[in-house]
Amino acid sequence: MSPNRFALPARILHWLMAALILAMLLIGAGMISTTTDRYPELLAWHRPIGLAILILALVRLAVRLTHRAPPLPADLPAIQVAAAKGSHYLLYTLMIAMPLIGWAMQSAGGYPIILWKGFTLFPILPHDIVVYGWLRFTHGLLAYAFFLLILGHLGAALFHGLIRRDGVFSSMAG
Amino acid sequence: MTTPIRTLPRLAVIAAILAAVVAVFAWVGGFLSPARISGSGVADSLQTANGKIYPGFRRAHAKGLCVSGHFDANGAGVALSRAALFPAGSVPVIGRFSTGGGDPSASDGRNVFHALGLRFALPHGEEWRMAIDHTPIFIVSNPADFLALQQAAIPDPKTGKPDPDRMKAFVAAHPETRQFMDYMKTAPLPSSFANGTYYSIDAFRFANAQGQSRFVRWQFEPETPFAALDKATLDQQPTNFLFDDLLARMQKAPLKWHMVVVLANSGDRTDNATVRWTGPHRQVDVGTLILDHAATEETGGCRDYNYDPLILPKGVSGSDDPILAARSAVYSASFRRRAIEGPRPDAITKAESPAKSQEGAR
């Protein structure tokens, strides 16, 4: 028997992380666009939410590996199957890589990694600002890639839900 | 079976939802607000005003020298803030003395604006970073004015100097900027990095263990007696005279400053770095900064930090001063740029290196 829906923990994690990741992309884009008080405020939120996403993504990966996902519709064209599978590998990769790169780049930049006032995280890379520079560049680039991927994911989900109406959308939303 | 007639409106709905998400992102990211000022925008304006990019160097305060030592707290600060810097004891400090401007090999006589970046390494990974200046006031009160000032300072391609009329117009419209420029012209400025008082510029908020919070500014007052800079002979001074002076002094003896916290009175402006706090104020000497080691940026270990004044420990937070948040954002943009360009040998290292490389050859 194949399930026709994702397991409950997978569904909870999906929607919680959808909200957090979208918030995170908006916080990141917003904070680098301004020199007002919003800059330090958003930056202060960016780090703890990033760490929360990292922890949740690792939990989610474990859930994904231990629970069977509903199969894709049998009549889905091969190209769409490949796109679905590939995009999900990328989404998981970015969910884990983006916070790790953020943490690593702040470490290499010689910054204290302040989760909240008075609580700092240990560095995961030695202080080297050239490494910081490249990681910081990568972090911004991948943020755009992540955003585009999420747009594609959302578009595909709506396509399944509104046009194909093949049960894929309700397997996560239902 | 769906027909195109039923599919099209649904595709349109999907497209509209995606477009709305993109629009929200574009709006939040400032892509729809050309007037919004970003840290990168100010870094761009500094580069333009500098006349060129000096890769690997800070976009402002490009010329510097590393110092290190410790801060010996006397315990008096505990009543004001729960910051881990204040209980009686000693914490290690790394610092960087610098002159204003974006040219890393500028002559010290041309840039008499002195600054000091400090990084206090507190217990449990906490840090307190400061970027303090030898003037009690700042040149503008908000980032938009700072941007306009940089634009007024863009060198004219014909003369290589800023258009004096543009600068005159800016200063005429900004009495606080005129006040700063007059201060630089008429006030006695310190003749050395060692005998200047360094001010926090912005107001900050201290919170103590009892939960009381108050606005403060602070200053580092030198034990070295003040001597005034001779402004008439600046052009005849050697290129690195300020930095050479500091190196020579530090070879003889450690240099000391007292950190004096100034408590705001009820009428004080906390949101405007161009306005001095005048009249009597309660001041608390919270400890002594002792700098006992100096080295060039190549070897001194201070170059690769961003002295962001909003990297603060528990017990200290920013104020409503718009310059403070802007400094944080702009320093970050500058740091990002110079980091990826990769550090380059600084002027003081280069000035000292002929002797060093000969020693190495022997």
Which labels suit this protein?
heterodimer; A: 174 residues; mainly alpha; Fumarate Reductase Cytochrome B subunit; two-stranded antiparallel ribbon; 5 helices; 72% helix; elongated; B: 362 residues; alpha+beta; Catalase HpII,  Chain A, domain 1; ten-stranded antiparallel beta sheet; 9 helices; 10 strands; globular
Quick recap:
The complex is a heterodimer of chains A (174) and B (362). Chain A is mostly helical. Chain A has one domain: Transmembrane di-heme cytochromes, Chain C (Fumarate Reductase Cytochrome B subunit, Up-down Bundle).
Report on the structure:
The complex is a heterodimer of chains A (174) and B (362). Chain A has 5 helices and 2 strands; from the N terminus they run αααββαα. Chain A has 174 residues and is mostly helical. Chain A has a single domain (8-173), classed as Fumarate Reductase Cytochrome B subunit, CATH 1.20.950. Chain A has a two-stranded antiparallel ribbon. In chain A, α2 crosses α3 (78-108) and α3 (78-108) packs antiparallel against α4. The longest helix of chain A is centred in the C-terminal third of the chain and has 36 residues, at 129-164. With 362 residues, chain B is an alpha+beta fold. Chain B has a domain at 63-140 and 175-320: Catalase HpII,  Chain A, domain 1. In chain B, β6 and β7 form a beta hairpin. The longest helix of chain B has 25 residues, at 4-28. The N and C termini of chain B lie far apart (88 Å). Chains A and B meet through α1, α2 and α4 of A and α1, α2 and α8 of B.
What is the chain-wise order of helices and strands of chain B?
A: HHEEEEHHHEEEHEEHEHH
- The N- and C-terminal alpha carbons of chain B lie at a distance of 88 Å
Strand share of the residues of chain B?
15-25%
CATH class of chain A: Mainly Alpha
Structural class of chain B: alpha+beta
Low-confidence stretches of chain A: none
Based on DSSP secondary structure assignment, what is the total number of beta strands of chain A? 2
CATH architecture of one domain in chain B: Beta Barrel
Provide mean pLDDT of chain A, rounded.
Answer: 96
How would a textbook summarize the main sheet of chain A?
2 strands, antiparallel
From the 3D structure, determine the CATH topology of one domain in chain B.
Answer: Catalase HpII,  Chain A, domain 1
Total number of distinct structural domains of chain A? 1
Strand-pairing-aware structural class of chain A: mainly alpha
Query: What is the general shape of chain B?
Result: globular
**CATH topology name of chain A:** Fumarate Reductase Cytochrome B subunit
Helix count from the secondary structure assignment of chain B: 9
Family (chain B): Belongs to the catalase family.
EC number (chain B): 1.11.1.-
Keywords (chain B): Heme, Iron, Metal-binding, Oxidoreductase, Peroxidase
GO molecular function (chain B): peroxidase activity
